[in-house]
Amino acid sequence: MQYRNAQAIIDLDAVKQNILTLKKQLPKQTKILAVVKADGYGHGAVAVAKKALASGAAGLCVAILEEAVSLREAGIKAPILVMGYTDPSYVGIAERLDIQLTAFQCEWLEEAKRHLEHSVSLHIKLDTGMGRLGLRDVDDVRLFLEALNLSCFKVTGAFTHFAKADTADTAYYVKQDRRFRELIEPIKHIYKDTIMYHTGNSAASMQFPTDMYDAVRFGIGLYGLYPSPHLKEHPPFTLVPALSITTQLVHVKRLNKGEKLSYGLTYETKETEWIGTIPIGYGDGIQRRMQDFEVLIGGKRQPIVGRVCMDQCMVKLDKAYPVGEKVTFVGKDHREVITLEEVAEHLNTINYEVSCLLTPRLPRHYLNEDE
Ligand SMILES: *Cc1c(COP(=O)(O)O)cnc(C)c1O
């Protein structure tokens, strides 16, 4: 039950539009895997996953086993890949729920096989220059393939991840792609084209859609957010943002000149001012550094003044508004819009982090949930 009037609104029709738009750019054989890790980048993994699948995504990617399990518990039957490291003692869970795991260590295979009934499906991870997870040279790939030669491991994919595919300078992308081709050679020799080869995140799939092998792992773009400022300024195609955050004024008062407000008294009125209070704060993921940023009220930008509290914050209003007036943190109000990218820039971070940091206390409302 929701009693408060503060919510993240997720328009799932935007998710659908973003999938359809990307699909048009990709060759027919290149599938879209929807990345819904970190609770769908804060948007809600289950609702986004269902919409993405209904809109043409071929499967899902998550970071950790728990995330895959909760998608299965929600009744989702599509292929799911866990892209991060899974402790080998839990491979039995992946086996039972038909979840694909990522592997890249011979010792891991040794340990994993002791926890399997029959077999588990694996994607081989190759490190072509991200320096995070994966096999880094051809000899190691060969050794790994030998260790894999057991009936309990069913290889269904091989992939890598780009460290820098989101800028105008594409040299490192090209280098990583070339390295990928070298590293998959021994894999191709054994598995031919029976497994799925994939490299691209949102940035790579936007910039190089025709080089994306068998699938892309579409994350940030799925939510209508751009992978980088460069891609926001030079978008190969337009994305539709799914998220808005709205609340309402719960208190409005007039303060005299020279009055102070909120913790630490960091704000003092410069004249007679209308000040509104809104029931949202850092306990919802609206970070303290949002102080001095803006919200939309009555289609106009109005500054957040004083410290952001855990549950509330204050806004300087251009005039008296009634209690209940709509307040928009992210999204559109009349002709004005505040994008998550703009918020991220103010917070000196990236849009990915801002939506991930929305806490479970902020209710998620879904629009266009049903196909
Ligand atoms: C998070 C992640 C993605 C998705 O990246 P976006 O930039 O959000 O598209 C793809 N692959 C891996 C391995 C990831 O960790």
CATH superfamily placement of the largest domain: Alanine racemase
User: Which strand-content bin applies to the residues?
Assistant: 25-35%
Please count the beta strands (DSSP E, at least 2 residues each).
20
> Which cofactor or ligand species appear?
pyridoxal-5'-phosphate
**Main sheet attributes: strand count, strand direction, barrel closure:** 10 strands, mixed
Low-pLDDT runs: none
CATH topology of the largest domain: TIM Barrel
Helix count equals: 12
- The percent range for helix content is 25-40%
Task: Return Rg in Å.
Answer: 24 Å
Q: Which class do the helix and strand fractions yield?
A: alpha/beta
**Kindly state the mean pLDDT as a whole number?**
97
Kindly list the characteristics that best describe this protein.
single chain, 8-stranded parallel sheet, 371 residues, alpha/beta, 12 helices, 2 domains, 10-stranded mixed sheet, TIM Barrel, binds pyridoxal-5'-phosphate, 29% helix, Lyase, Ornithine Decarboxylase, Chain A, domain 1
Secondary structure elements and pairings:
Blueprint: E1 6-11, H1 12-25, E2 31-35, H2 37-41, H3 45-54, E3 59-62, H4 65-73, E4 80-82, H5 91-97, E5 101-103, H6 106-113, E6 120-125, H7 138-148, E7 153-159, H8 171-191, E8 196-200, H9 202-207, E9 215-218, H10 229-233, E10 243-248, E11 251-255, E12 260-261, E13 267-268, E14 273-278, E15 294-297, E16 300-305, E17 313-317, E18 326-333, E19 336-338, H11 340-346, H12 351-356, E20 364-367
Helix pairs in contact: 1-3, 7-8
Bound molecules: pyridoxal-5'-phosphate.
Residues 35, 37, 83, 161, 201-203, 217-221, 227 line the site of pyridoxal-5'-phosphate.
